Batch of 4 targets.
Target 1
Amino acid sequence: MPVSHLVTCMEMTDSELLNPAPRIADVSLTPTPGRSWVIKPLHDRVAAHAGWRSVNWSAEQWRRRLTNPRVRYATILVAGQTAGLVEFESQPHAEVEITMFGLLPEYAPPAAAVPGLVDYAFTLATKLAWALPDGLGKLPARVWVSVRGEEAEPPLDYSARGYTPVLPG
């Protein structure tokens, strides 16, 4: 059976391994409650542009996602304006997965209103992931991300940020 989508898992096993992108003034990441009315419309704009499969989620899938206590969100801001969305999910064994990371079309390459925004926003997302305790208050021992070939927008060099590939097996 042919494989239609390549999935690459990248991980960081210590927060000290983070190689931060150069700081960009006026760019921040703000934790946003999952039940916030801004999450789904923001997601849908980012997902439609980036080609995420989650753009087709049903109302029930969204209800479950937004009420899941292990799932957290943050909004990427540029000069106080919403520029993108990050979703984090606490996993067993003190892990946090960055499950969604994307920018609104006007901030995403090639438009890239702010050069370097993708890398700096991902640096902020990684820093926040390391600070997210699980349901028992334990900080993560691993932060990871799955990159699907069809969802590679915005383009990111995860290795440059300090992530390493997870080898199958």
Target 2
Amino acid sequence: MALSGATAITTPVQSSDLGQVLFFCVTPQASSGASPGSEVCSNASAPVSAAWVAAVITSGAPPKGTVGTPYRFTVTASGTPLISFSASGLPPGLSFDASSGLLSGTPSTAGSYSVTMSASNAPASGGAQSVSANVMKAVQVYTLLIEPAFAVAPASIPTLSEWGMILLSGLMALFGFGSMRRRHR
């Protein structure tokens, strides 16, 4: 169906549209020669395929970490075509793999860090046409808490001289208690 003077309207496809059958209807203006109020509808489309679906971050907030303890968190996202990731504001000791979305490493400094994670993709380009204006980016800002490592002090074991003092004071207390009992009888 061709409409003279029609303007093409492009709508981004969302994840929920995949597999759905879509159609559209338009009401022509009287100036087009059509009867006012008459509606023209398209035939139903084939089910929507994943030619391009905007990026959406699907993983939750990253868990807290501990200084000196290995840390791993993977950012996940939906969208087509393939998605690339980026992250900024990472705590010292952590690194980010942009192709897999893996945040990993061993945190070295405790604190609360504002980490910005993003997932982006773009529709396939046609020939030499630039698609930089069509890049869709999903951005999430998280607060990543890195807790200090808790150092457990080793329990001190008494030395031989300390054991001797403990034993001697115990014996003195025992004999002192015994001698007090004899005096009171």
Target 3
Amino acid sequence: MVRFQGRGFGRGRGHGNYKGRSQHRSQPSSTQKSTSQKSTEKKTLSDHIYYVGSAKQASDFVTVTNFIISHIKINLGQYGPDVADAMEALEDIDFEKDKPVLRKTKITDKDVEDDESGQKGIDRDAEQDQFLNEFKIDYEAHKTRQKAYEYNKKKAAAILWKQCSPTMKSKVMSRTDYTTIKEDPIELLKAIRQHAMSYESTRCRMKTIVDALKAFVNFRQKEDESTIDYLRRFKTARDVFISHVGKDFGFPRVVEEDQEFKELEEKLANQTATVEEVKKKYDELNKMHMEKFYAYLYLENTDRARYGSILKYGSGCSIQFEA
């Protein structure tokens, strides 16, 4: 079972009346198709903008973010990947964990005392000097990397800010924590994600929820999209959906029909279980069944042209992969 820890379209044939000598429309050449496809691809930063959320824009958040992170990784020099990796993980790098440690020689005082030639003492001093020199080099490199990281964070935050639409900038600037996050790309990205995924409007609240539900259920893996990128976009679409229906959303009847829950309800009726125990079990089972729902939906909406032949649905909604 796939566990989670946040459209394709058909092209019909034209049937309009055609006036001319030929009754058949000329088909574009493979070169023309390739050129047309390339012209619609998003290739530059100007094509990747953060907008305040809608069902579609929220799903595009991952695509835009991945492009910007790749840009940062390539264009911020030798230490650019550090900031890019931190933004991808949404967590600062712990430089203390990677801090160099001075190695110590394994030649003990006793070894030196027992060596009548005195060579052990010479070897120990030479080895310790070598370790000290290596430590100094590693420590300087570590400090240089740490300073570059802090400097690149500000540059990365500036790039993120540049990629925000005017409305998104207005939303972020209106936050009480704006002054503390504006030069921190990790916190700034979290704020952007929040506004990209929380699409509120003056429309009917139920319409907003229905739109989020439709966008999630009809979510599809794109042609030539890797499973990793599909999973990232899927998680974003799931998070958008949850942000509108609530984290406790579930299928009560599925939980109530679960054998474990039935047995616990019987114990409650017999006063051998408490209400708190029943509620706790309900929450556990609801979470488990929602994970099954997300896993099923993720696999159901994979690119069938590539994976349809290896997906096999067994009894009880179990999903297997044929070798």
Target 4
Amino acid sequence: MYAANMLSMIHCSPTHYTPEDWDGFVKLLTDTVITHREELLHIAESKSSPDGKERKIRKRYPEEFRFILQHWFPGLRHSDYTIHYVVRPFTVEQAKQVFQSNPKNLSIEEMFRIARTYPADSPEYNKIFMTAVLLNPEHPVANLNAACILLSQGDTKGASLYLDKAGELPKRPFARYHANAERELYRSGEPAAQSGRGRTAPSR
């Protein structure tokens, strides 16, 4: 279901392909001892079309062509595709559905976006932020959010573990959450994390 939803949101641009690998043919000729090698190289490196090159080799050097057709062309006739596509971001409602079925398919920003649609400290709000840190254990903002949630639940020891991983964060409007976390940990007697506890982070 997820794959089908994703495919429905993908727009593919035109692809480019090379049906016959004449560069590979030239390399094989260069590395192989075969009669009329120089003549074959001249044809292969010419500006003729791929079909034109093949016709010339078949007509002028039928014996070599039979060998090439049997042993070389099967490996050289391939198509390499480069597909350029843009995946449209989920709407909030789509993101909520994906969160319920397979949250690892959401970016952390998408999780933050759907969390903001619920009241702060509600079960849904807390579940989304705790899932975000579970799936992104090194993300500093996710760790700070998880620390704040655990502090609101009175779990200062658990909050301390997340706060230690908040990392160096720029000053943002959510500085008060980080400061509150510091105060609560200090009051509870939990050891402070490494230096830099005045850091702040966005909750997004």
